[in-house]
Amino acid sequence: MPEPSHLTATRSSYDTVADSYAERVKLLFAKDPMGRAMLGAFAEVVRTGGGGPVADVGCGPGHVTAHLNALGVSAFGVDLSPRMVDIARSSYPELRFEVGSMTALDLADGELGGLVAWWSILHTPPEVLPVVFAEFHRTLAPGGQLLLGFRVGDERLSPEHAYGHPVSYDAYLLRPDRITELLSRAGFTVTAQLLLQGEKWPQACLLARKDAPVP
Asked: Which tens digits make up the pLDDT trace of 187-212?
């Protein structure tokens, strides 16, 4: 079966912009105390809930993976872009990074104690999100924690340039109430929400728990 066009476009674009992107997002992350606070809360509930490995899905250059590891969880990164994974491995050689897609993670059922998708569902068409959230649910253990970060709105954006290079992806702004609904359908309960005013668009962070099966 041919690969979905949005995956091909996203991989190609991020392979192109990877070096410029890595420099910029690391600086932005250093200026984001509220985002780091959500990651800190996520790491704490993972640790107190029994631990287990944490997947940083759409890890980019690996800075969030490294931050999570410093917070005391066993984090590894997965990204669609081979160039991003190369940068992450070079920057953090002590950590594990793999090429992969959030629509089909190469992980066993219930393997994870936590999963982070930090601004990485941005290029996923909304109609594909149920597939992504089902995959997140499959790979998390019962009671496992999920942290999502995304831009808020109703628009579909189709930029031609980003980070100083041509790109071919689409970007989707999402409503927190809609994401909460989709997570509920996938078997998650949202336990915390943070809304932020970003430079261009509002931003949202949702912390959710995989519901344990009813006895």
From this structure: 999 999 999 987 788 999 999 999 87
Residue with tokens 């899905």: 57
User: In 10 A of CB 37, how many CB atoms?
Assistant: 12
Give the pLDDT of residue 20: 94
Q: What's phi and psi for 156, nearest 5 deg?
A: -110, 120
- Cα gap 189→165, rounded to integer Å: 39
Give just the sign of the alpha carbon dihedral 143, 148, 152, 154.
negative
Residue 1 has pLDDT above 90, yes or no: no
From first CA to last CA, the distance across the chain in angstroms is 39
Establish if 125 belongs to a structural domain: yes
Question: Is the model's pTM score more than 0.90?
Answer: yes
Residue 206's nearest CA partner among 161, 163, 174, 165 is 174
Question: What are the structure tokens assigned to 3, written together?
Answer: 């690969």
Q: In terms of residue numbers, what domain contains 49?
A: 5-210
Domain assignment present for residue 215? The answer is no
As a dihedral over the C-alpha atoms of residue 132, residue 138, residue 140, residue 146, rounded to 10 degrees, the angle is 30
